Amino acid sequence: MHILRTPDHAIDGLADYPADHRWLEIPAGDEQTLRIHLVDVSPGGSSGAPVVVMLHGNPSWSYIWRHQIGPLVDAGYRVVAPDLVGMGMSDKPSELDDYTVDRHVEWMRSLLVDALALAEVDMVLHDWGGIIGMRLAAENPGLTRRMVISNTGLPDRDPAEPLPDELEASGPFAEFQAMARVAPRWEPWTLLPMVMVSEPTPAVIEGYRAPYPDPPLTIGSRAFTQLLPTRPDNPMYPANHEAWKVLDRWEQPVLTIFSDRDLVAPDGWKPIVARIPGAAGQPHVILEGGGHFLQEDIPDAYTEALLSWLGPAPVSEGDRQ
Q1: Which of 48, 223, 232, 309 has the smallest C-beta neighbourhood within 10 Å, fewest atoms?
Q2: pLDDT at position 319, please?
Q3: Does the pTM exceed 0.90?
């Protein structure tokens, strides 16, 4: 596996991005390692604060959480917001076939469980971060305490059902997927108008462009387009189905925060609310005025909905002394 790396200085001086960010290494297989970039910030530097893990999707990176990180820390939480492999400032395997959903799940498990030794965290999940995060919760007992899920879902297909004769890609994302595979250049920041309702400012565009100073560095974003479940034999389905067997019995609290103008996953909340016991009776909300990237379109409304449900972080006995 050939691994690409964004220069560390690429996001120096980026407006509004937290200064408390760092890198950790995880195994990549074949005696290689991947360097993962993450925001990791705690109130007063306290390592014992309850943890909120924030997982982004495509075409974003941890920059998308910049409006929520500060208020969460002010509420007493330690915030851990990694860049998924291939995205943002994390390392980037160089070939499309290097990326699978299973690998993304394992890469994040290695970071959160092995490298950071986290447990009983609150997960805040968006887009591909929802698929990865719900899998992490289901596959790693004790990792997750609560989940907040936004504009995403966990695609499910019973692998015991016979496959149809027609296995060609179909559905609303098939044409986009095919285009993304062969496009001469892939520039994730140019997708912002597709996922936002408001016009992205030059500063926001720069925030999404900054980690990709050279064209080959956008491979991870392009790869995510090829993982979309446009075929009934998508490789993620068997493990997703097993995850749903756990989530169908999941009693821990789950909240959905969606937006009313999302064109990517507008109905993703429905199976979550219908199937996960921990979602019953929760104050699920569809916020007005937001597109798929509701963190960009309506950041204040999103932050308020998030914090009103999470509440202030519980204070440990050690912090009281």
Answers
A1: 48
A2: 53
A3: yes
